[in-house]
Amino acid sequence: MPAAGPRPTLTAVADRAGVSIATASKVLNRHTDVAPATRARVETAVAELGYRTPGARRADGRRTVEFLVDVLDSPYAMEVLRGVTLAAEEVDVDVTVSRVRGGDRPEPASSWTRRLVTARRTGAIVVTAQVTGTTYASIARARVPVVVVDPLHLTTPELVSVGSTNWSGGRTATEHLLGLGHTRIGVVGGPEASISAVARVDGFRSACQRAGLTPDPDLVRHVAFDRDAALHAADAMLRLPDRPTAVLASSDVQALGVLEAARRLGLAVPRDLSVVGYDDTYLAAWTNPPLTSVHQPLQDIGRVALRTVLGMDEGRLPDAHHIELATSLVVRDSTAPPPPAGPGGHR
After folding, report:
1. pTM over 0.70
2. CATH 3.40.50.2300 fits 10-29+38-47+58-164+300-325, yes or no
């Protein structure tokens, strides 16, 4: 977060927006008799200057933390939100949820940080939003405590984030499959731009190297954290003449795509193909068969993120700018020893 300095004044906001002090005050107090274009100029000036009204909390004195997410139907995000909400209840803090627009026209950080300032939020927790140097600059100007959960990019070390031990998670899952006797293992990894996805694949490669195996490049595919993308990647691998006997996915949602690809090709899990997911969301226990998955302590990540935001609001800096919680492997029914080679086997 930015170093302490003189706080910008309402006069400075009015000057930057080219309006009167009275008009700037109306915008900050949410009066409705202000033209939309004028309101936008004032809100932009507030975000650019990092202006916060004295005691920038709600009128009733309650603290409110905003939970911003780009995918509203993500089991991963909902598990994090559960942890945030439970932690907030313990300290009597309100939580609001809003969406950061993604896709082909992602919402700029200046837009959602402006919303945080004008809504007088205590701070924010951002899940899977695109994080760049520009993002951090917008957060710094707004002077609002922000914690990013497992960012896709982490190009700014000053940004505070919470995640898990992704490299270790990928390695542990691979060691489980190697221990069952699998030597031809496919990986449906997340996007190569995602630091967490790359770390999981690096953990996979490390386990293979330790076992004296060289991963087949045709069996390592980087796709979106998406069921359909994983389905297509897994289908291509499972149609190879020497197909894998196990597939490690980088999320439970991706694992659903792998299971569907296997079903369409008439492969039984785990008799013909072992499948491992990642995250250990509620989906893992609901699949058929129940999914072996790397457990990320998502609720604990949410709790830590909430406590960190509140601590930053009170002037306490976290011990580290990136906090990692330990992963573990939950073994269920989707993994077993590989099928025998030859007639009735996988080759």
Report:
1. yes
2. yes
